[in-house]
Please model this.
Amino acid sequence: MSSNDKQFATAFITVLGGLTLLVIILFFIASYLTKDVSSYKDEELTLSNIEPVGKVNIDDGSVPQAAATPAAVVAETAGAVPVAAAEPLSGEQIYQRNCMACHTAGAAGAPKLGDVAAWAPRIGQGMDTLMAHVTNGLNAMPPKGLCMTCSEAELKSVVDYIISQSQ
Ligand code: HEC
Model:
């Protein structure tokens, strides 16, 4: 090897070594800079990012039927503010939800709402008796009129409503 060749070889190896070192340094800088980005690979985050906006509420039996009222289903699918369940219902609302089926149609001999003649003797028994019959049931009249979640005060407000409409 001539000294020219030797000089070339030395320079060549030096440049090559320098470039290799540069590649290694750049690699570490790059991986340092992308460190935060790698958290986006987190599976949970990805799943929550691609989650559908709405869900179809299919009754698979896991939720008690009473909880899946149409209003709740609509609220859930529309993503709307849920119906405030905590707010006590008015006597009229409870009547329409629980008592109307029998007392508007007069089913099973139920005294009809607004039937003054049918209600007069019942109202005449006094509130205590009426409330006892509503709470415990009376013949075909089921206990609590089937409003099992109704408090005593709520039941009283329904009876007040029925009386106000039937005298
Ligand atoms: C399954 C049908 C049915 C439902 C639901 C029902 N009732 Fe009745 N209710 C009756 C029948 C039948 C009677 C008459 C009972 C009798 O005198 O033999 C009656 C009677 C009553 C009476 C008169 C009781 C008395 O002492 O004469 C009241 C008050 C009353 N219901 C309130 C309610 C209220 C409030 C609700 C809802 C929370 C309700 N009912 C739901 C069938 C029903």
About this structure: The chain has three domains: 3-49, 53-58+65-87, 91-165. The two ends are 125 Å apart (CA to CA). Residues 144 and 155 are 7 Å apart (CA to CA).
